């Protein structure tokens, strides 16, 4: 009986002990759903730090130069922002502090804080090991990246290029890309697709999984974005692309990225990469288009000055300039009045852009070197192109694709136009691009199937004389046909559409804004650049005809061959001369352009 009592007491004691032990263990593992949300400056226990401060969604991007790298990640709480790094895997001897900010509109206990650290003055083409570190030295496992080759370094550069991507459904795609980047030959991953919608959490989740699902790729390689068209563009909201502008940081753009500067460029070895927005040409706010055009002309002018050491110029945008199988009702590229084409084609031609890669179209398309829809190379090849080559990667978004296919069924383009070199529809499992700068004369583009990693298309541009393209260098009949096309569209041969004709009025040049004067001013800027680069005396006639509205400094206009004639804001301004090549059509045109937008 006594022993039974003892047994009962022992049993109770053990139960109590186990229970309190369990309770103690329990209290050791804090539950993020019940803990009070820490405010800035609050010190928490190491256990809690793990919950609040674990870096998630780590992603990299190139910094302002090839020797800078930007590391970004999210946390739940406003934790410290540091990266420890080194060029050796075992000794993270360097520590850099960064900035963090709260992402507006996110729930408590979600990945609400975005952190950004810039690693500066790294060595080019060098592998670095790093860890994002927050409170109490809590951080991620070690990660690593390789910096880009220095400007004018002759090392081979390879970019993977993806169009719209849904990591949750595109598992095969992700594993192909992971395979590919693991090869160690990839300098950066260029994402030419929508991000705005990808960053919005799907229903029932606090956070989007987009960046987490891509972490294997984007925490180890610069993730370079191309501004896409947001379905959420509206005149009332100043939150356009808010998540995109906050979650990413691109070279030579302040962070968070401002709405009026989503475009950027960077050099990697022998290539100058440009990422531009095509949404601005359809935007309610025409000042954005103007800001980008100004920047593009400046950037391309500068890039051409360095062309001897950085010969290749490749531009990435969303909506294409041309498409062979588009429907004018839904596709800007299929219209004679294409906003994107009228805004960019002349500029890319004049400044000698080698390749333009776009994404937002139904199918994959590749063109011959062409200008105004006319093939510039008689032998139909990529040997010494005399105009830019255009590649359209096509959409992966099935819904959008379906929508466009429905519209397409009414398309009246049975025969592909002459410039269409290759065309692919409905690639099962999707595809991605690989752009390889082999050396100063050879640039290779490949399209690979995501399922097989097989090449679906490939070509090599061989260019021995990089620089501005010029009508004068074309065969007579080609130049003639281009001139005829320009005339048929109401233009004037030898003049260039640097600014999009946003009026939507066919051939109406009587408006104050998009006027013949501006065309001439555009030509002036072009001629100036040509003169710098080629030392040609090409601007005289243009100057004499419109000198009233020019800004050339006197000396330059006289000797014609001098440098430095194009300079914003210098020289003597007449009252009607507020922009060199920019045209103030935008305020007047914004009504029409918003109309244009809604027709999308
Ligand atoms: C780590 O690197 C720093 C700087 O390069 C060096 O001073 C230090 O001795 C290294 N520590 C070890 C343990 O190698
Ligand atoms: C890079 O440019 C510098 C200065 O312009 C020049 O001295 C050097 O030789 C170039 N290097 C290569 C590999 O072209
Ligand atoms: C258009 O964009 C500019 C530059 O971002 C901004 O200053 C202006 O307020 C915007 N206009 C409208 C109508 O949103
Ligand atoms: C574009 O212009 C050409 C000739 O200039 C004409 O044949 C064609 O129908 C036009 N296309 C559209 C979509 O307006
Ligand atoms: C396509 O054509 C059919 C008949 O010609 C017409 O009913 C339909 O509205 C058209 N669809 C589009 C998107 O133009
Ligand atoms: C550039 O690369 C191509 C392809 O690898 C090669 O055939 C060519 O000889 C190279 N040119 C130079 C100048 O190295
Ligand atoms: C120009 O002429 C060549 C042959 O002399 C011909 O092959 C080519 O198609 C012509 N190009 C155009 C655009 O008419
Ligand atoms: C086309 O126009 C340009 C610029 O006016 C001119 O230089 C060229 O000679 C013209 N070509 C032909 C074949 O008329
Ligand atoms: C202006 O737009 C009209 C149609 O909207 C087009 O026909 C014309 O060629 C454009 N002009 C220029 C110079 O872009
Ligand atoms: C051309 O544009 C001006 C100014 O926008 C307008 O007043 C005029 O009616 C237009 N003309 C035609 C033919 O569309």
Automatic annotation (TrEMBL):
Pfam families: Metallophos_C, Pur_ac_phosph_N. Gene3D superfamilies: 3.60.21.10, Purple acid phosphatase-like, N-terminal (2.60.40.380). It comes from the Eukaryota. Residues 409-452 form the Purple acid phosphatase C-terminal domain. Residues 55-144 form the Purple acid phosphatase N-terminal domain. The keyword Cell membrane does not apply. SUPFAM superfamilies: Metallo-dependent phosphatases, Purple acid phosphatase, N-terminal domain. Residues 1-24 form the signal peptide. GO terms for molecular function: acid phosphatase activity; metal ion binding. InterPro entries: Metallo-depent_PP-like (IPR029052), PAPs_C (IPR025733), PAPs_N (IPR015914), Purple_acid_Pase-like_N (IPR008963). The chain crosses the membrane at residues 519-543. The keyword rRNA-binding does not apply. Keywords: Membrane, Signal, Transmembrane, Transmembrane helix. PANTHER family: ACID PHOSPHATASE TYPE 7, PURPLE ACID PHOSPHATASE. This is Purple acid phosphatase.
